Amino acid sequence: MANLNKVMIIGNIGTDPEMRFTPNGNPVTTFRIATSRVYTGSDGERKQETEWFTVVTWNKLAESCNQFLTKGKRAYVEGRLRTRAWEGQDGQKRSRVEIVADRVLFLDRQAAAALGEEVKYDEELEAEDLPF
Question: What angle do CA 83, 85, 88 make, to 5 degrees?
Fold first, then answer.
């Protein structure tokens, strides 16, 4: 039986990327991204729900994300979910679900132009603009 672990999101970068290097010298960049959903509640009032994700990128993708992404920019992130678990300094067990990205598209003019990518910049994304 086949398995699938795939996630695709479009959102706003919530923190400036942080790049580190593994002991082997491989770059790894992490950042937070938020997605929002607007809906009408049962009381007829418009509500907004925001989800935050931690994104981890490696190697050349990590370098590009560190160079071109900043807080407030929009991006498309594609990858897989990974759960990390560790014990905190206080002895409590902690866990975090992360997106390990294998593709990040920069949805702003400056970053896309610097990379030579052609991206549409309408207020609303059209279905044909999405890479899936």
Answer: 145
Backbone φ and ψ for 42, nearest 5 degrees, come out as -65, -20
Beta bridge partners of 12: 34, 74
Dihedral of alpha carbons 128, 112, 21, 16, sign: negative
DSSP letters spanning 33-94: EEEEEEEE-TTS-EEEEEEEEEEEEEHHHHHHHHHH--TT-EEEEEEEEEEEEEE-TTS-EE
In the chain, the domains with their CATH numbers are 7-129 (2.40.50.140)
Q: For 11-54, how does the pLDDT look when each residue is reduced to its tens digit (9 = 90+)? A: 999 999 999 999 999 999 999 999 999 999 899 999 999 999 99
